[in-house]
Write a structure and sequence with these properties.
The complex is a heterodimer of chains A (about 300) and B (about 240). Chain A is about 70% helix and about 0% strand. Chain A has about 300 residues and is an all-alpha fold. Chain A has one domain. The radius of gyration of chain A is 22 Å and the shape is flat. Chain B has one domain. Classes of the chains: A mainly alpha (about 300), B mainly alpha (about 240). At the A-B interface, helix 3, helix 6, helix 7, helix 9 and helix 10 of A face helix 3, helix 4, helix 5, strand 2 and helix 6 of B.
Amino acid sequence: MEPLIGMGVLALMGAAATVAGASEDLESDVGSQSNPNSQVQLAPQMMYPHRIYNKAISGEPPSNALMCAIGGTTASVLMTAYSMSPLFAIAMGALFAAIVHGSYSISAFLGRPASQKRFKQPVYLDVLRSHTPVIMGYSYITTFCILVVSYLMIAVLGHPFPLPLLAFIWGITVGAIGSSTGDVHYGAEREFQNVEFGAGLNAANSGNIVRTAESGLRNGIDNSWFCAKFGGPVTGIAFGMTVFLSGWVTTVFNPAASLTMGWLSVVAGVILVLIMIIWNRKIEVAARAAFGPYKEDEVAA
Amino acid sequence: MIDVVSILSANILYVVLITLGGMLISLSVHFVPVGGAPAAMAQATGIGTGTVQLAAGAGLTGLVTAGAVMAVSDSLPLILAAGAVGAMIMMSVTMLVGAWVYTYGVGVPPASAKIKYDPITKDRQDLYVSQGTEGHGLPTVSYVSGVIGGLLGGIGGALVYYSLMSTSTGLTMTNLIGLASIFAVGIFFVNAVIPSYNIGGTIEGFHDPKFKKWPKAVFSSFIATFLSALVGVLAIGGL
């Protein structure tokens, strides 16, 4: 394969992965999945009933892996057994995945607030009706983009893994990245805008999530509006970078050419990692200089 | 009826390598700085997700790169290195973007509550921990620890995949790749779950006191992976 075509495909994969990462994070913000949901779940027990969609089907990685594996299996069957075009097969696969994810969301939403009846938490059916299609829409975009990435890896870059398995693995990875990066913006900032900016959640404030929105009462869609400004896009950058960089090292230094090229790809990868370690250190130093310590040094004072 | 003894005697090296890979994965999980649900509220140092989730995300990314390299090369060191690089890149990117969110989105500096001084940079930690939290973000020591975790996990996952792929079998290449990769993912998950009992939700990296408990998890992984390796090699070798 021409190196230039390889780079072009890689760029397309990176772009699709960026969209997948962003939509994955916003899906988990609308539906309040993943770790920040512990506060949404806790709030009614601390006497703060709310109108936020509450679904935690499972951790984000398994739930995205399920979506992507369903989509990948459907697309694979449509392509091999029915000779459908890849684009149609991937679109249908993503549709099935979105329907399955929607049904899980509904059962999770009906189950969770219903179990909190003793804490006077209502089950808002209008929230169910307005949020579930949004969740399904985001899950469709995520699955579609991940299937595009997986299909390109197999069809153009010649990856040996079968489509459903590759989609499954990227589903696990996008979920892991989404819950590690974008969800912190939702959990540490958006849920607790009522406390002073620039501190972690004090354990004493647990469950005291913000329940009023910019206008009216806050719901999951308000949360995704806020997180779409920072948490969602950076999650997209993270997943896009992972897909792009991990493929970039072997596309530029192709191990198929010679063993030396293979080792050069490893060296390139290690250099990238070292650059990121230094970058993180720079952020650490800059943040400490900008924000300053929270307490005085007792010995000095 | 498959001939268990001859399959095992022909592939005993691969059973040993798979077991070794599983033990490496188990050790690697202890290096990954995870803060669980509290870290998602900037309430604990580390990445705001579960142990298994992050280790699996990194290790499986390594498996994808190792699989890609194994399709074009048969050099074991190169395949292992490719797995390690894939996992390290995923881990570094995730931690770096996590640092962006903590710093620019939440406005907290990275700080550890378990140690007073960062062993690598010698920076003071306790003054930068905000009130009512167990630290937040990723200080350099946690970041480096996470990269080491990615390295070991990537090598472990690639070793398991390489061994399964090298088992003598009558399967066609397509079916062998499918079966070997699914077994590799399964063995990865087994060994990512076992250390989470040691970690109990949060660990900051190799400087965390909980890290000292790793021999117990690695020994448990030795037993669990040995049994998984027997099943994997027999299933692939018997077909």
